[in-house]
Amino acid sequence: MSEITINTSQNVNIIFNTASIGERMIAFGIDMVIKAAYLFSIYFLIDLFNINFMGTDLEWLAFIMILMSPLIFYTLVSELLMEGQTIGKRIMKIKVIKIDGYQAYFSDYLLRWFFRLIDVYSNGGAIGLITMISSKYNQRLGDLSTGTAVISLKNKVNISHTILQEIADDYIPAFPQVLALSDHDINIIKTHYQNAITHNDMVIIQKLANKIQSVMKLDDRHIPMKPNEFIQKVLQDYNHFTGKE
């Protein structure tokens, strides 16, 4: 299983494992079951209400297209609304991301969806399977064309901040109150911060910053930095003080 390293805007390196071919196939299978359930529901309702559509061939075609549109656009709409996931992908805890770390755009999802005609539905999916086996990040043609990959969210994320690796001798700490925190506190802060950064959850980051300020008895009105910058500074300061003791 290969790894993808993404450098976020906070200069944090996040290492993800790519989703295995098996995980992607199971997710696809789950989505197919959902589509089959939709088809069965439509058939059941038509039979239940004895619906007989009377119209021209063109009108009949339009009627069929309307009924089939949820199936046709299921993957595209799901990945747009669920930020890179379908129901199957969410159950399997895998997700589509850009390899450069940015959120995939509509054009990326659209192109991936279009390439499904080649990757998935032509030759029994052989093209997509061969491409995933031979590519570095288990990418099918749709992924390669958009610079995306499908990653697993189940693995523990390995995050390293470049500043935390080494603290310069002339480093100037900002919060001596950081010594009120224990190693256990710092580990908890790191864990929650890593998870929040991974999921771009600014609400959790804000709550975490507020909690740290409360424990350190700081007035947030006198902290001229964003919550994520504050948390990074706290971690750096703790590393500075404990590393010199």
Describe the structure in brief.
The protein has eleven helices and five strands.
Poorly predicted regions are: 159-165
Number of alpha- plus pi-helical segments: 11
Q: What spatial form do the alpha-carbon principal axes imply?
A: elongated
Coarse structural class: mainly alpha
Helix content: 55-70%
Task: Please list the strands of the largest sheet in the order they lie side by side.
Answer: 1-2-5
Q: How many discrete domains?
A: 2
Taking the sheet with the most strands, its summary is:
3 strands, antiparallel
Order of helices and strands: EEHHHHEHHHEEHHHH
Percent of residues in beta strands? 5-15%
Rg measurement, Å: 24 Å
Number of strand elements: 5
Gap from first CA to last CA:
41 Å
Mean pLDDT across the residues is: 85
Transmembrane segments: 25-46, 58-82
Domain RDD: 18-144
Subcellular location: Membrane
Organism: Bergeyella zoohelcum
